[in-house]
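User: Can you write out an input/output pair for a complex, sequences first and structure second?

Assistant: Here is one pair. Inputs:
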Amino acid sequence: MLPFLGAIGFGLVFGWLLGLYDIKPERLPAALTSLSGASVAGVAVTAWLGGLSKTAPFSVAALVGLYVHSQWRSELRKRYPKSTNP
Amino acid sequence: MLQEAAQSPELASTIQKIGAGAFGAVVGWYVYYINRYRKDDVQLSDIVTLIGAIGGAAVLALFPNKTDLFGAYGIGLAAGFFMYFFILIVLVNKAPGFNSSWFIDGRGPKLEATQELIQGGKGMGAAPQIED
């Protein structure tokens, strides 16, 4: 049970960190490649430390962390648009 | 002691698990701290570095594969990381003149008439950029 929860903890932190990575439309392919590479690295570390079976909770938790973080940032940007003052 | 526990993971004692969790909490706290004081936009290399910090060589040496110690470390990591974030939210919302917009780009209230930024002055973060 503990390794399972540990993999979830890893995944949440990892997904949250991935959410920091701003994807600009003009650099979409490069960004997707980068994020895929980072995700493969994250899954590999989890598989190494926790075993293959822990990659599933890690991946789900990472997606949840990524989704929650990006939604939170997007909500903040909507609520507080950039100032137009000089 | 941790390595001995790893050779027989089922024998990892409660105190060892608490220790692994506390170690993870310190790393998680520090990961958020490092990320918060990052100077440029986040790059892939930052994320890779953080992955290295989270599951790096020291961790691999201390907590061998598939043990409860790894689990305790992961739980502590998330606890430390999100505890920093939670405390930051509370402090930002309690600070006069600040609100959640601070999280977007560090917005804050204007300095009052009796306040100024001191050249070379430094709080917890980087020294302020003062225009001459």
